[in-house]
Write a structure and sequence with these properties.
single chain, 108 residues, alpha/beta, four-stranded parallel beta sheet, 5 helices, 4 strands, elongated
Length: 108
């Protein structure tokens, strides 16, 4: 596969009428869902990581942010409410309780 730097291949864009690369892809859609947790719910997590993970869902990758750990109740509850995940004030507890497949560490 050649690197298209995040762009859709021309045949998919024009022949497949899928300019943004969001058309149904059975191979991706049939993968087992990944349960993802975030450690850190600050600016980088909210402006970069969470939108990037949401973008994967538009490409038919079955990923779910199920938990976020951050010591700030304000940040934690905000992410919890917007993204439908659980907030933990302690990342160790999140790691023990959630059975995650992957973790994004977005903390100082």
């Amino acid at each position: 596969m050649r690197d298209l730097y995040g762009h859709s291949p021309l045949d998919k864009m024009f022949a497949g009428a899928d300019v943004y690369g969001t058309g149904y892809e059975p191979e991706r859609a049939e993968r087992s869902p990944l349960r993802i947790g975030l450690i850190g719910a600050g600016g980088v997590a909210q402006s970069k990581w969470l939108p990037a993970l949401a973008r994967l869902r538009t490409l038919w990758d079955p990923v779910r942010v199920v938990a976020v750990a951050d010591p700030s109740p304000a940040q934690g509850h905000k992410v919890e409410e917007i993204h439908g995940c659980r907030w933990y004030s302690d990342h160790g507890r999140m790691l023990r309780d959630e059975g995650l497949d992957a973790v994004v560490v977005s903390s100082p």
